[in-house]
Specification:
Blueprint (H helix, E strand, L loop, with lengths): L3 H10 L7 E5 L4 E4 L13 H9 L4 E4 L5 H8 L4 E5 L2 H10 L3 E4 L10 E6 L13 H10 L1 E12 L25 E8 L2 E2 L3 E4 L3 H10 L2 E8 L4 E8 L1
Helix pairs in contact: 1-4
């Protein structure tokens, strides 16, 4: 499978930046991921990410670590952190940038160690792919936690992307049997298109209910300015 994301990160890291990643979604949205943003430092990160990094403690697993921004910040502040990503290119970039421990694998197949903090930033819970997969995904994350460990994740309630009914303030959501936060994305970079992949945006109440069903406490730590939030999950 083409590593579109990894190729783009490698190009930028090696000084070959000429264009950004294009994304196409099942919501009929076209967008771009600016490559410089994927190499941001702490000061350039959203408040939710900054808050999560300040709350991280102990041995840390940075899931979906990308170019290693979060891992490097934590490592430079004395933490033992492992970056994990299923992109070969991303992990190469992490190592070249100085991340001491970086693993190229899917989180769903990773079971090597237990951690005090699991980080899933930039909507990392999206890796669950669908609402049906959220329960087993949460169970797997919980299996990687030390007894008093925590999961820090951010996500967005994308209800705002649907048309609003002026009369009652509700939203027009397609009745296709799917949860409205289930989205399919395709990435394109330098004319090459990757395989479509499923992604999940989950509203806080739905996340909280899923956590309760799987033996996890779910605390709302912080709300962002645009339907986004930071949550802290712990074992009950």
């Amino acid at each position: 499978m083409a590593d579109i994301f990894g190729k783009a990160l490698m190009d930028y890291h090696h000084g070959n930046y000429s264009e950004d990643i294009k994304t196409y979604s099942s919501l009929d949205e076209e967008d771009v991921i600016p490559l410089p943003y994927l190499f941001r430092d702490f000061k350039e990160m959203p408040k939710l990410e900054q808050k999560a990094l300040k709350l991280a403690y102990g041995r840390i697993l940075d899931i979906g670590c990308g170019a290693g921004n979060h891992a490097l910040y934590l490592q430079n502040n004395g933490f033992e952190v492992t970056g994990l990503d299923n992109s070969v290119g991303a992990i190469s970039v992490c190592k070249e940038r100085g991340v001491k421990s970086a693993v190229n694998t899917s989180i769903l197949t990773y079971d090597k160690e237990k951690f005090d903090t699991l980080l899933l930033l930039m909507n990392g819970i999206g890796l669950a792919g669908s609402l049906d997969n959220l329960d087993p995904f949460l169970q797997h994350l919980a299996s990687l936690l030390q007894p008093k460990g925590q999961i820090l994740l951010d996500s967005s309630d994308i209800i705002y992307m649907f048309e609003q009914d002026d009369e009652d303030g509700g939203y027009w959501i397609p009745d296709n049997g799917k949860y409205y936060g289930e989205v399919t994305f395709t990435m394109e970079y330098k004319g090459e298109e990757g395989e479509p992949f499923d992604w999940l945006y989950v509203d806080f109440n739905t996340l909280q209910n899923a956590c309760e069903a799987n033996g996890l406490n779910c605390e709302l730590v912080m709300s962002g300015k645009h339907f986004d939030y930071l949550a802290k999950l712990t074992k009950t």
